[in-house]
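FORM 7B - TANDEM STRUCTURE REPORT

SECTION 1: FIRST PROTEIN
SEQUENCE AND TOKENS:
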Amino acid sequence: EVIENIIIFIPMGIMLKCMGVNTKKSVLIGFITSFILEMMQYILAIGVSDITDIVTNTSGVIIGSYIYMIFLMIFKNREIINNIVFMIGCILFSMFMMFYIMIMIVN
């Protein structure tokens, strides 16, 4: 479950960097998003809310931010990277979130 939580939020970190959000704000946005999701789980009694989920989700955002920065160092053209990564990131993030929601509904 830990690795799944990290993987689910990596695209979010990449997308935030594509939008020009700095790393500190990306981490804050990831933390707040994860916190809201965990609170919704608790309030709606869906699954189990846990502080480790918030930590692992936020870690995924951090990893995604660094992946974007590595691609930027390699390819050096921000516009091309943004277009490609943003499209892939949107698709993957949507797929992972749908998968996450389905898992939460089933459990």
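SECTION 2: SECOND PROTEIN
SEQUENCE AND TOKENS:
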Amino acid sequence: LMLPKKLRLNVAEFPRETKPTASTEYFLMKIRKNGQAVDRVGIIVSTKVSKSAVVRNRLKRMILDEFGRSFRSTDSAGGRDFLLVLKPAAAALSKDKLRIILDKYV
């Protein structure tokens, strides 16, 4: 299940000076209003998380899948941009644990 392009955020568009909104042992999340009618998500997974591109891309797909489910199930008033910066501990996350953690913030 791919997230539609209009719901994906180009991370280069996100202002660097934005303060983190939430932080866990697995990721840092920054949220800001985007002035659009839709929520968008961007993900940064560096090689510090895993040297393997397969692992990094699997993490991105899992996160995009979870955001896709939550975006469809809620009607948010005013759009927000979510930027997730993954930490090395995220490489060991299972899909179920990821769902539980993201449900707290989305």
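SECTION 3: OBSERVATIONS ON SECOND PROTEIN
The radius of gyration is 13 Å.
The chain is about 30% helix and 20% strand.

SECTION 4: SIGNATURE
Preparer initials: ____
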